[in-house]
Structures are given as structure tokens and as C-alpha cells.
Specification:
About 20% of the residues lie in helices and about 35% in strands. The protein is of the alpha/beta class and about 150 residues long. Strands 4-5-9-8 form a 4-stranded mixed beta sheet. A 3-stranded mixed beta sheet has the order 1-3-2. A hairpin with a 2-residue loop joins strand 6 and strand 7. It is globular, with a radius of gyration of 16 Å.
Amino acid sequence: MAVHKKKHMARTSVLRLLRDSNAVMHCKDNLAFMRPLPDESMQLIVTSPPYNIGKSYEKRSSLDAYVQSQAQVISECVRLLHPQGSICWQVGKHVHKGEVFPLDIVLYHLFKDHGLKLRNRIIWHFEHGLHCSNRLSGRHETILWFTKGD
């Protein structure tokens, strides 16, 4: 599992989890983590990438630049995915000048361009979050479940 390294986290690059000696957490850039891994070595990839909303662990960019960076990560994930593997991609929305861009719709074609098959579009509903002043407050995110094979 690759996670974003936050400023307050320890400076170590690998953390061993106490409950499962086989689980290892890497705190590094996703692409730097994935590139040396062997092709088709992952049965399941589950991720919630940054939404390009300017959080402390990401730099806000144009939607086109964001999609281009996500395309690199998705391409690398597809390379790593086993022929019978699954990718679960959890995303929310990107807001620019008051307009909402649902990231599952924006990113869908990147997965399809790699020949992946959408198996389900899962809606995760939650009760917490910030209140919006110019629209209804969104209280859900989408998980796209893709597979390489049948």
C-alpha cells in the first residue's frame, strides 16, 4: 500500500505493522513506489488518490494537469495488475469556480482506454464533512471497481 507522506509523519520509508508481519507500509511517492515492482504482480489495488482540492499533501493544479498526472498513476497500476486482478478507485469531486466535476466521470475513460471493465460503481455515503455555502453539501464518494479480465 502506498500512502502520501505528511509532514508530521516519521521520516522512515517503511513501517512494519505489529498485527501482521507480512504487511508493509511504504511512505513515498506512488509512482516512485510502483515503478520498480514487477508487471502483473498485484491481485488487488485499492486507492483514494488526491482530489486536487488543495489539501496540505497535494498541490492544486488545473483539471487537465490533474487528469494527466492521474493518467500516469492509472497506467502504472494497470501494468502492475494481474490478469485476474481488480482495481478499486475511490474519488470524490473537483470544484473549480463553483462548478462541480465528478472525478469518477472525468477519470472513467482513462481506465477504459486500458481495456479495463467496469464491474461496479459503488457509492460510499458518509455523515461528516464541511458544509457548502453555494450548493448542497455532498456526502458521498464513488468507488469505481474495474477488472482486467472476465
